[in-house]
Amino acid sequence: MRAEKYDVLILGGGNAGMGVTVATRAAGMSVAVIEPRELGGTCPNRGCTPKKVLVAAGHALHEIERARVHGIVVGEPRLDWAALIDREKQMISHIPGSLGRLMADRGVEVIRGEATFASPHSARIGDRLIEAKHIVIATGSKPRMLPISGANYMITSDEILSERVLPREVVFVGGGVIAAELGHVYARAGARVTILEALPRLLPGIDADAVARLRTESERIGIVVKTDVTVKRIAAHGSRFRVTFAHDGVEHEIAADRVVNGAGRVANVDTLNLDAARVRHRGGRIETDDYLRSASNPAVHVCGDVLSTSPQLSPIATYEGRIVGRNIVEGPVAKPDYMSIPSCVYTVPALASVGSTEAKARELGRTIKAHVNDMGDWLSTRTYNESVAWAKVIVDEATDRILGAHIVGHAGEELIHLFAFAMKFGITAGQMRDTVCAFPTFAADVKHLV
Ligand SMILES: Cc1cc2nc3c(=O)[nH]c(=O)nc-3n(C[C@H](O)[C@H](O)[C@H](O)COP(=O)(O)OP(=O)(O)OC[C@H]3O[C@@H](n4cnc5c(N)ncnc54)[C@H](O)[C@@H]3O)c2cc1C
Fold this sequence. Notes:
450 residues, alpha/beta, seven-stranded mixed β-sheet, 32% helix, binds flavin-adenine dinucleotide
C-alpha cells in the first residue's frame, strides 16, 4: 500500500485536535484531521454546550422556585422534557457543519474514519495509510468502565442529553462533575435523584468546604447523596433496575428507571495500537514530556482529554492543542501552565474554582490566609434571594498574591474570572480591594472576599 504524506496528522477533530490546526496551518504545513464522528467532538455535540442548555432550564426553574419572595405568584412549573431536548438538539445542530467550513477555509483536510497507528510515523484509516512527520493523539475520553455486575445497564451523559422522556427515579453511580450537574437538572425537573459515591466526599480535587456547601444545596433540592458506599450490582427488573450497594457493612437496594455512570472519564486510547507507534503507556495513560510529546516517541504529540496529567475541560483541550501546534512549528518551546485556568461545576447555583485548594496550598507549605465568607446575609445575596452564597479565597501572606478562589453561588461562574485575571497577571489581594466597582453588583463584593 502506498502511503499518503502530510506534515501533520491529527487523530481526533475535537477542541484539542482543532487547536493544533491554528499554528500548523498558519506556518503553511499540510495538515489532516481524522474524525469518525461529528466535527467538534464532545464539547459542542455531547458535552458542555448541550449540557448548558439543560442547565439553563434548571436555572429558570430555580428562579421560579425563588420568585415568591419578589411578590411574584407563579403556579407549579412543569418542564416539557421532550421540548427541552428538542431545543438542545436544535441549538447545536449547525455546529459540526460550521466547523467543517472553518477547517476547509483553514486548508485542513478532514478525513472520515477511525485511525490506528501502523508505525511510529504512520496511521491507517480504513484502507488508507497516512505517513506524517508529526502525529497528534487528540482522541478524547470515554466513560470509565466499572467492574460491577450489571454495569452494562448503565447509561452515560450521551443518553441523558438525547432521551426525550424524563425518568422518574435516577441513580448516579459515582459523584463526579457529570453526576452533580445533570443530577441538579433532573432533580429540578422533578426526578428523584440519588448519587452513590465510593469516596468519603463528592468531587474529589475541588476544595472540600466548597463541595460541602454544594452538597447541602443538592440535598436541599431533594438529591439523596450517599458517600463511602460500594455499589455491588445492578439488576434489570422489566424496564426498571435495582442497584445494590453496601454502606457501613450493610447491603441496601434502590430502584430506578435509569442508572447513570457518573464515575468520570478515562483516556480514549484502547484501539489506537500505541505499541506500533512506540508510544509508551501504562494503564491507558500515555507518558509525556513537559512539551506534551510522547516520552518515547517525540514525533507523537498528545493533547486534550486523552492526556491524563491535566483536567478534562474544553478550554484546556483547546489550550493544549494550541501548545502542541506551536511546538510542532517552532520545536519544543511551550509548556502548559494550568494554575490560573478557572473551572466550574454547573450545578444551580454553580461551584466555581481557580488555583489551589486550601488543602493543597497548605500541603505545599505556603503561609496562607484563607478568607472564608458566607455571604448569606449580604444585601446582594438577599436582593436576589440566593439559596447559597459562599466563597473562600486563599492568599499568600508573604506576597499578597491570590493562590486560589472557590465560590458557590453569587454569580461565581462569572466572578471567578476576576480571580483568574488576578492570578495570571499578579494582581494582589490589596490591589483587588483598591479597585472601585460599580454598585450594586456581585463583582463589588469581591473586595470584601479578600
Ligand atoms: C456531559 C459532558 C459535559 C461537559 N461539560 C463541560 C463543561 O461544561 N465545560 C468544560 O470545560 N468541559 C466540559 N466537558 C469536557 C469537555 O467536553 C472535554 O474536555 C473536551 O471536549 C475534550 O476535547 P478533546 O478534543 O480532548 O476530546 P473530544 O472532544 O472528545 O474529541 C476527541 C475526538 O476524537 C475522535 N476519535 C476517537 N477515536 C479516534 C480515532 N481512533 N481516530 C480518529 N478520531 C478518533 C472522537 O470521535 C472525538 O470527536 C464535558 C464533558 C461531558 C462528557
